[in-house]
Amino acid sequence: MLLFLTRRILIALPTIILISIFVFALQKLLPGDPLLVLAGEERDPAVLELLREKYRLNDPIVVQYFTWVSNALQGDLGISLRTNQPVTELMLQKLPVTLQLAAMSMIFALVIGVPAGILSAYKKGSLTDYIANVVALSGLSIPNFWLGIMLILLVSVKWQLLPASGYVPLSEDFLQSIRTMLMPSFVLGTALAATMMRHTRSAMLGVLSADYVRTARAKGLTERRVVLKHAFRNALTPIVTLTALLFGELVAGAVLTEQIFTIPGFGKMVVDAVFNRDYAVVQGIVLVTAVGFIFMNLVADALYFILNPRLRGQ
Amino acid sequence: MSNDVILTAKGLTKRFGGGGFMAKSPVMQAVSDISLEIRRGETFAIVGESGCGKSTLARLLMRLLDPTEGQVTFDGQDISHVTGADLTRLRRDMQFIFQDPFSSLNPRMTVGKLIGEPLEVHAPNLGARDRRQKVAELLQQVGLPAEHANRYPHEFSGGQRQRIGIARALASGPKLVIGDEPVSALDVSVQAQVINLLGDLSRDLGLTLVVIAHDLGVIRHMSDRVAVMYLGRIIEMGTAAEVFEQPRHPYTQALLASIPAPRSAEAPREQLSGEMPSPSAPPPGCAFHTRCPHATSACSAAIPTITKVGNSHSVACHRWQDIPVPEGQTAEPARSDQAESRFALYRAALAGGAVQHGPHE
């Protein structure tokens, strides 16, 4: 197992390096000079020169890259051109918000998607199956922003059940924090739940017709045990893979969802930074997200080991 | 019903298809009107070509499928439609060995878990330690070391996996074990081991064994009674000696003639031509008349009923009285003079105490 994971990490490393080069290069290639924004209306050449010196923009590009990487490795992702705050500090403020949103959305996706998938595979061709499929299809086709706005209109404005927007940290008021996050994570989670349901269904369909499921039935086990213990465990691999991959979709979805519900998270930060040409912030966010994505996939790889004994011997 | 009959099937019929929402799928009758009795302690074999419905019959007897018509009685109880607790009890008394040892074991569970699971269900009072002890005994019973309980199925060879499958089947202490092609997925050398193991176990534990197979060599070796199937029906049934040595149905005769055996070149084999007809469109009358060398017009008119031709021997053929029992089936095939002289040399050498290697001819 250790060997396998080491190999996976070794494969992940070049990916991370490539991403860092790409992120760095993208900044340099983008039109528009952030210094022009900083230097103000007059654009005094002396001020510009001073700023270039300060942000070390006169160094050769390779040197700039390595300075950036070595700083990043030490947790220093530069300073926001806009707010003059360190990027790391900014991100540490926003990260818990988005992590909470992501975690709650994922819970929604798993709690709705997986049981629905199992049920519709088990009752294939039945009314339950059709209903589950129709619901899943609508979950996929209804745009997030529309569902978000409708929910705000209905739940917050009309029934006044949940707050329409904002964010309360978990540490401040646990219950209120969950309540404010409920709607956004539901909106984000339903779209993922649909994908999850479809994949669970197809994985379960394959497994339910397997010979060892017939063996399990022949043993005289209850249907519940046959489906959950024998079939579902073997269908878990694609579900784990999908969960790791959906993490990317989650971050992308968070950008939109956070805008609708005005949540001060990662997504909102990205949008603001892009509009402000706050390069250091954009670089930092893209890098952290990419590393996070790779990390999630490493976790999935490790989980395969626990799930699949056939891998362990290798 | 006499007490020495453990399993009875009466008029068992299974049709597939005919359903479908918009368009009806074609109806296929896989098993037609099968009646048989299996006696306590015997080894009963069901033979036939692939597609003749023998696996469907096995599944009906196992109560893994619902019969369309007819009923199955196990130990005096009608089991054709049992569910719930009764079905669980049935699973304790009747167990199965499946064909493919590779796909029929859950790859995510250790062998110990796989064999122990029936115990969890059928002997819930057994503690974890006793269960492990019992699993170890079962493993030893099928000739595997008890330590193998902690391994996963993928770490075993085909023959070993089939032994695990047998241990699993024995775990609940069944009275009847049904094997659906239990050895056909194995190497020939391993087949013999597994067959011998099954024979030993059924003798030692007093098991009743029902074996479904297409390999006549396997059947002849291990079974007491044999039923031959063709296109969903039993066409001949009797003791192994009767069926193998005095086959009455032309299909059985053709099947036996197709066994590759050392025989002289002068006696040409009787070969069947053509394919087995589709079970969704069976020919009228005797299903075999399309391929039968003895068929007359009467054969395509009515389905022959199964008739007793001996004490325990019965056959479903309109013309069984006119068809001669093939010769040479009983005795060993005649040897040529040359071969006979070589055997004589061999016997002489054995008697002399040492085999002398003569020059090659």
Describe this structure in words.
The complex is a heterodimer of chains A (314) and B (361). Chain A has 13 helices and no strands. Chain A is mostly helical and 314 residues long. In chain A, α5 runs antiparallel to α10, α7 crosses α8 and α8 crosses α10. The longest helix of chain A has 38 residues. The termini of chain A are close together. The model of chain A has no long low-confidence stretch (mean pLDDT 85). Helix content of chain B is 31%, strand content 19%. In chain B, the strands form two sheets. In chain B, strands 6-7-8-3-9-10-12-11 form an eight-stranded mixed β-sheet, with helices on both faces. A four-stranded antiparallel β-sheet of chain B has the order 2-1-4-5, with helices on one face. In chain B, a hairpin with a 5-residue loop joins β11 and β12. In chain B, α3 crosses α4 and α5 packs parallel to α6. Chains A and B meet through α9 and α10 of A and α2 and α3 of B.
Brief overview:
The complex is a heterodimer of chains A (314) and B (361). By secondary structure, chain A is mainly alpha-helical. Chain A has 13 helices and no strands.
Features:
heterodimer; A: 314 residues; mainly alpha; MetI-like fold; 13 helices; 78% helix; B: 361 residues; Rossmann fold; eight-stranded mixed β-sheet; four-stranded antiparallel β-sheet; 12 strands; 31% helix; disordered C terminus
Secondary structure topology:
The complex is a heterodimer of chains A (314) and B (361).
Chain A: H1 2-29, H2 34-38, H3 45-54, H4 61-73, H5 87-122, H6 127-141, H7 144-158, H8 174-208, H9 211-218, H10 223-260, H11 266-275, H12 279-307, H13 309-312
Helix pairs in contact in A: 1-12, 5-6, 5-8, 5-10, 5-12, 6-8, 7-8, 7-10, 8-10, 9-10, 10-11, 10-12, 11-12
Chain B: E1 5-16, E2 28-39, E3 43-47, H1 54-62, E4 69-74, E5 77-78, H2 84-93, E6 94-97, H3 111-122, H4 128-141, H5 158-171, E7 176-180, H6 188-205, E8 208-213, H7 216-222, E9 225-230, E10 233-239, H8 240-245, H9 250-257, E11 307-308, E12 314-315, H10 337-351
Parallel strand pairs in B: 3-8, 3-9, 6-7, 7-8
Antiparallel strand pairs in B: 1-2, 1-4, 4-5, 9-10, 10-12, 11-12
Helix pairs in contact in B: 3-4, 3-5, 4-5, 5-6
